[in-house]
Amino acid sequence: MNAIDKLRDLKLPEETLVSLSYSDSTDVFVHNDTAIDTAVSETDVISMFSELIATPRLHVYDRWGNSVLDELRGASYLDAYEPREFYFSEFLAETLVDNYYDLDGLIEDTVEQYDYKRGHCTLSADVQVPIGELLTNESVNIGGWTVSISTDGGTFSFEA
């Protein structure tokens, strides 16, 4: 049974928000302050996040309930996009990489330092999406994401 079928079986109202989480990590050097930059370039968190928020007819909200695309538009990060120049998800990924430190909160980073030189950096994306849009949108791909949904009986979580 795939993730969409599992969500459909819950029979929840269309406006119910589903939490999606994705993280990846890599070993890094911490002595030269490149840990986060290394993780951004060596993990697929930015590309997975970009593909999700670029999905047509899918409203993706950050952990505070703000529309991710509306926030990026409002801060003028999407002004340079030229339709048909290249795919929107690729533009978003490039924008997120180029402005990573200015877009505080969209992607979380954690650095664990092993010694003075080496460590491990994890990047995480946590968003919310209306279940109705997940169930009716054929172009949505949540493979690899952890899906969590609060119900009266507790929180239901699974890997998509």
From the structure above, extract its key features:
160 residues, alpha+beta, 5 strands, 30% helix, globular
Briefly characterize the structure.
With 160 residues, the protein is of the alpha+beta class. It has helices at 3-9, 35-42, 45-53, 68-74, 88-98, 131-136, and strands at residues 17-29, 107-113, 118-130, 146-151, 154-159.
Question: Would you write up a description of this structure?
Answer:
By secondary structure, this protein is an alpha+beta fold. The protein has one domain (3-159). Helices cover 30% and strands 28% of the residues. The chain is built from six helices and five strands. It has helices at 3-9, 35-42, 45-53, 68-74, 88-98, 131-136, and strands at residues 17-29, 107-113, 118-130, 146-151, 154-159. The chain has a five-stranded antiparallel β-sheet with strand order 2-3-1-4-5. A hairpin with a 4-residue loop joins strand 2 (107-113) and strand 3 (118-130). Helix 3 crosses helix 5. The protein starts with a helix and ends with a strand. The mean pLDDT is 94.
